């Protein structure tokens, strides 16, 4: 989806259309941007950017609080559209998914035409735009989906894969972040064709296991199947406060609210997990996390909060204030929880 959270806000609130918009963060410079509209991106505002920096780049930036329940509803509607064309869908997040259209449910006969039909349905039914990448494997399709945003459709056929990758700037490769890109450039790797000159062994010596991925990546080789039942590695929620918290009682109250919200997110995904992680960011921007793994699976706020309190009591804050708190769950039970007789699976 194109600037998903921001696009939903602009769709639902006409006064925001055409404006530089940030979902997440705040006008007092606290927090970070979750998603920026394309109007804001023209000024250099990006996801995960501190609000303070975003305001420096775009003083007229409008901030709005995320409405995750709404985004989840829209995401479900998008996946309903997907299922008209294929049942092999691997969600990556609320706004992105892989689709395997080998089995063509409507007999359209062309992956490109299927992508066009899906884009059209999203536009007409949900009044949003999506960008699609069509190719022979997940890696190439992912790159293609980002190539002509917004509202793009890029097809990279078998004969075009290698030439396309050879001419692609290294920072455009999926999986190559800023730090890795700088390291590669220090090795003289600026384009795909430069990366292709290195052997698999040489890349593994420089980048460890990722080196093997990079070696096959630049050759367009990716045999990973689309996995319909892909489970998120973690589900979490966090909040940055307008005023730093100094009283432990206030922090515990906020953690209780976070646990209640986390319970709703777990319910939306029919998920339960064993590992609870507490995250704190202090007023000096230092960060700490503490985790605990239970002997059984948990999916309710009360038990999550009990575990979080145990973790919190072990943290010595001294006189430091807290600007952000977060709680997340991981180590999921991945079967269909609706079939379970008990809300928890205790392990013996």
UniProtKB/TrEMBL annotation:
Cofactor mode of binding and number, as noted: Binds 2 magnesium ions per subunit.
Catalytic reaction list: DNA(n) + a 2'-deoxyribonucleoside 5'-triphosphate = DNA(n+1) + diphosphate
Co-factor(s): Mg(2+)
EC number: 2.7.7.7
Compartments in which it is found: Cytoplasm
Short name of one Pfam family: IMS_C
Site (Substrate discrimination): 5
Record's function text: Poorly processive, error-prone DNA polymerase involved in untargeted mutagenesis. Copies undamaged DNA at stalled replication forks, which arise in vivo from mismatched or misaligned primer ends. These misaligned primers can be extended by PolIV. Exhibits no 3'-5' exonuclease (proofreading) activity. May be involved in translesional synthesis, in conjunction with the beta clamp from PolIII.
Listed name of the protein: DNA polymerase IV
Stretches assigned to coiled coil: 245-272
Binding site for Mg(2+): 95
Family membership noted in the UniProt record: Belongs to the DNA polymerase type-Y family.
Keywords: Coiled coil, Cytoplasm, DNA damage, DNA repair, DNA replication, DNA-binding, DNA-directed DNA polymerase, Magnesium, Metal-binding, Mutator protein, Nucleotidyltransferase, Transferase
Oligomer and partners: Monomer.
GO molecular function terms listed in the Swiss-Prot or TrEMBL record: DNA-directed DNA polymerase activity
Catalytic residue list: 96
């Amino acid at each position: 989806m194109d600037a998903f959270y921001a696009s939903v806000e602009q769709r639902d609130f006409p006064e925001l259309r055409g404006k530089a918009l940030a979902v997440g963060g705040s006008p007092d410079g606290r927090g970070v941007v979750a998603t920026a509209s394309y109007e804001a991106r023209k000024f250099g505002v990006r996801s995960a950017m501190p609000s303070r920096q975003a305001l420096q780049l775009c003083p007229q930036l409008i901030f709005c609080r995320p409405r995750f329940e709404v985004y989840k509803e829209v995401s479900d509607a998008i996946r309903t559209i997907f299922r008209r064309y294929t049942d092999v869908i691997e969600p990556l997040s609320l706004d992105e998914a892989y689709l395997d259209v080998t089995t063509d449910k409507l007999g359209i006969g062309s992956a490109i035409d299927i992508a066009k039909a899906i884009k059209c349905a999203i536009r007409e039914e949900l009044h949003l735009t999506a960008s699609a990448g069509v190719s022979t494997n997940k890696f190439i399709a992912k790159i293609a989906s980002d190539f002509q945003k917004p509202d793009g459709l890029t097809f990279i056929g078998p004969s075009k894969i290698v030439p396309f990758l050879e001419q692609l700037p290294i920072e455009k490769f999926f999986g190559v972040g800023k730090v890795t890109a700088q390291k590669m450039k220090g090795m003289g790797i600026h384009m795909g064709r430069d990366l292709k000159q290195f052997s698999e062994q040489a890349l593994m010596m420089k980048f460890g296991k990722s080196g093997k991925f990079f070696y096959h990546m630049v050759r367009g080789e990716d045999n990973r199947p689309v996995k319909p039942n892909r489970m998120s590695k973690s589900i979490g929620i966090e909040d940055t406060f307008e005023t730093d918290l100094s009283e432990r009682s206030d922090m515990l109250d906020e953690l209780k609210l976070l646990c209640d919200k986390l319970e709703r997110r777990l319910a939306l995904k029919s998920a339960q997990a064993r590992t609870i992680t507490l995250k704190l960011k202090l007023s000096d921007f230092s960060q700490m996390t503490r985790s605990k793994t239970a002997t059984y699976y948990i999916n309710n706020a009360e038990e999550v909060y009990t575990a979080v309190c145990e973790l919190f009591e072990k943290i010595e804050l001294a006189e430091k204030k807290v600007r952000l708190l977060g709680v997340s769950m991981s180590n999921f039970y991945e079967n269909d929880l609706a079939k379970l007789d008990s809300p928890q699976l205790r392990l013996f």
